[in-house]
Amino acid sequence: MHTTVTLLADVPAQTLPARSLMAFTLAAHITLVPLGVALPFITLVMHHRGLRRNDPTALLLARRWSAVMAVQFAIGVVTGTVLSFEFGLLWPGLMGRWGDVFGIGFGVEAWAFFLEAVLIAIYLYGWRRLKPRTHFLLGLPLPATALLGAFGILAANSWMNTPQGFTLDAEGHPTDVNIWKAIFTPMFGPQYWHFVVAMLVTAGFVVAGVYAVGWLRGRRDHYHRLGFAVPFTVAALFTPVQFVLGDSIARSVFHKQPVKFAAMEYVWETDTHVPEYLFGRLHPDGTVSGGIKIPQLDSILAGFSPDTRVTGLTSVPADERPNATQATIAHWAFDVMVVIGSLLALLALWYGLVWLRRRRLPESRWFYRSAACAGAASVVAVECGWITTEVGRQPWIVYQHMRVADAVTTTGASGLWIMFGLVVTVYVLIFASFLVVLLRMRTRWRLADEQQAAGRPVAAPETDTPYGPRPAVGAGGSAESGNGPSRDARS
């Protein structure tokens, strides 16, 4: 009861349903983002391997992943569009006052979506109609457009964390907007690269996890080994990079958003020799219960010395900082993210050591059990990263310039709760449909593979793309415009 009162104190009644609705739609959308940002890159890596090694299995995997990429993109457009509407409907105060300053990021993301849709269509079409080299080259811009979309969103979010690029008139309205400064804020670089590498790591583990499950079920042919090895290698290579970037962004928060850092690390009073808490709960009086306390470690991590002075939550008035409940949420999200990242790094190290010593994939079932769980764990880590970013900034929607309560809509709370219920229902149907489509694609592909392996004609043409069945291979060549490798090699 105390927690509920704390969260609702001194804010309009519609704030809780508005934040709940925004949090739900963002959390749902972000589960699709890793595949949207990184799957084009992983697919092209596999595509390149297929061309370079004349490997029809690699080309088959790339083609199937491109179909998944298209379906995921369609779902992502829907959930992303809902988020765009919510910015205007739920937070008119934010968009009305600050839209001219940071809205350019949403414009960039919209253009990136449009370009990516065109390029995905060309890439899918090219499997049937273009020569292999031409088709691959036309697919190369896809990762760039995915990164451009991330650029737009992260530019907007980093501006909300460290706003700049404007001056305020006598009434407090922004004027003299400098677009370049509004885009390239102090937090943009750390946030952007941390996010992009997180997407590569997450997508790699998610895709590899599918084939890890196949390995555990006894499917250990070339198709499944290659389907596991390529995305897992991408994830394993980027995992240590993410550790460095994670340290960099934490240090940037320490310097640029010290109160958020204090919430993430349970720093109550500004001091040196500050301890690090692993989990635990912060109370309104500044005490911490539960968890593990490591003396002086927070100061050492922040400034490489126990004498580093760390700003505490009490350095600002209570209404300008996260309350104890919000700080606990941010702290737990941050700790969960770090723990998952550490476990993924150990898994990547295991993989790397086996490969360097034996030049083959690991054989331990525990390794593949861990790999099967790594995809879901990395998605949880991404969710935790966003929770840390957004909850740690409270009560500000624009850091030190506009509070969440001042940006929220005037629509009644009851109407927002009804809208929340409708959105949840629609999203359940959307994601259920997405899952059904993926399962049907998997079933169709598996049936085609089994029939081909048995030397029987495929009863129904295999559909690798949304546009229809692939053409039959003629006697003089393959469906790759007559000069690509044959498709029926499976091992």
Indicate the mean pLDDT: 86
What overall form do the CA principal axes indicate? globular
Percentage of helical residues?
55-70%
Number of strands: 8
Low-confidence stretches: 1-8, 459-491
DSSP helical segment count: 17
Describe this structure in words.
The protein is mainly α and 491 residues long. It has a domain at 13-168 and 178-187 and 413-491. It has 17 helices and eight strands. Strands 1-2 form a two-stranded antiparallel ribbon. Helix 10 (188-216) packs antiparallel against helix 11 (222-256). The longest helix is centred in the C-terminal third of the chain and has 41 residues, at 413-453.
Notable features of this structure?
single chain; 491 residues; two-stranded antiparallel sheet; 17 helices; globular
Brief overview:
With 491 residues, the protein is mostly helical. The chain has helices at residues 2-8, 15-30, 33-52, 56-90, 92-102, 104-129, 132-139, 141-161, 179-183, 188-216, 222-256, 258-265, 297-303, 324-358, 365-391, 404-407, 413-453, and strands at 167-168, 174-175, 276-278, 281-282, 288-289, 292-294, 396-398, 402-403.
Topology:
Layout: H1 2-8, H2 15-30, H3 33-52, H4 56-90, H5 92-102, H6 104-129, H7 132-139, H8 141-161, E1 167-168, E2 174-175, H9 179-183, H10 188-216, H11 222-256, H12 258-265, E3 276-278, E4 281-282, E5 288-289, E6 292-294, H13 297-303, H14 324-358, H15 365-391, E7 396-398, E8 402-403, H16 404-407, H17 413-453
Antiparallel strand pairs: 1-2, 3-6, 4-5, 7-8
